[in-house]
Amino acid sequence: MADCKDAIDLSINESRCGERLDTALLEVLESAARSDEELGQWFSEQAVTRSKLSRWISQGFVLNEQGGEVKAGQRIKRAVTLRLLPPVEAGPELEPDPSVKLNIVYEDGAVLVLNKQAGLVVHPGAGNANGTLVNGLLAYLGKELEGSGGESRPGLVHRLDKDTSGLMVVAKTPRSYQRLVEQFVDRSISRTYLALVGRDPKGTNTINNPIGRDPNNRVKMACDVPGAKESITVWKIDTALKHGLLLRIKLQTGRTHQIRVHLRLRGAPVVGDPVYGLDESVVPSLRSRARAFGRQALHAAELSFIHPESGERVDFVAPMPPDMAELVEEFNS
Description:
The protein has 333 residues and is an alpha+beta fold. It has eight helices and 14 strands. It has three domains: 8-84, Roll (Structural Genomics Hypothetical 15.5 Kd Protein In mrcA-pckA Intergenic Region, Chain A), CATH 3.10.290.10; 93-186, Pseudouridine synthase (2-Layer Sandwich); 187-333, 2-Layer Sandwich (Pseudouridine synthase). Strands 4, 5, 6, 7, 8, 11, 12, 13 and 14 form a nine-stranded mixed beta sheet that branches. A three-stranded antiparallel beta sheet has the order 1-3-2. A two-stranded antiparallel sheet has the order 9-10. Helix 1 crosses helix 3 and helix 7 (284-293) packs antiparallel against helix 8 (322-330).
């Protein structure tokens, strides 16, 4: 999830009336970064300057209270709250990689929808400088992606974990990028996942526990930790199996590892999850099979959003990959 960098709401008070918007916004952002560890880390990594902030403003990544664009040089006339939708930038220069397979479901001039295979890393990072989805997109789309999102994650408005399969939308233009990011912010985009679990999650069908970085293990996420952010997952039973359940899950927020962490909290981790899984949730006869699967049995099956150009809602469906479908069958035999 986390998907794109979270929107940042910044309030500029009346004492700054008469200042340039970009100058005032940078100082407010700097102040917020000093009091928020995660925001401070992002601010430092992106080396935010007034010129960079001004470029983001010109690209439409700063919106006023009505959702409209603003201008870097305009003067502050009253107290105002602005929303920053920052692209993630920095990192080494990206290289196109035509060997990366793209399973394209739909494409037009504004967006590309694909069905990501399990095992494919979405964007370059530590240990994955090449061979990612982004490298494949650059080989396929080339200059079409210029200016659409951040320099290190062009076109990406959300992502899937390496070993989660399923549907993703890629923005091909700056305009579509901005409009899709706004849909993640206002939650008008809809994502439905299928998850195999070994037992019924405890409690209600809505899991509403904030998620943040685990202070004891920085590669993991955890619920209700310092700095945790609102995280809402809604689940229902898609298919009752002989030895477990296939769940249909909708995300109302998009935190990193959200489904995996929330189901672990409920005592029903995703089968095969090497980070948050528990053998005890799987019947003994299937535990070795779940471990051998080697990844979380999680698939982004449905994606629905408002097309950034036509304004019409579009819907996409991707069947489970064969290996996960086979595993589900084994849990039902």
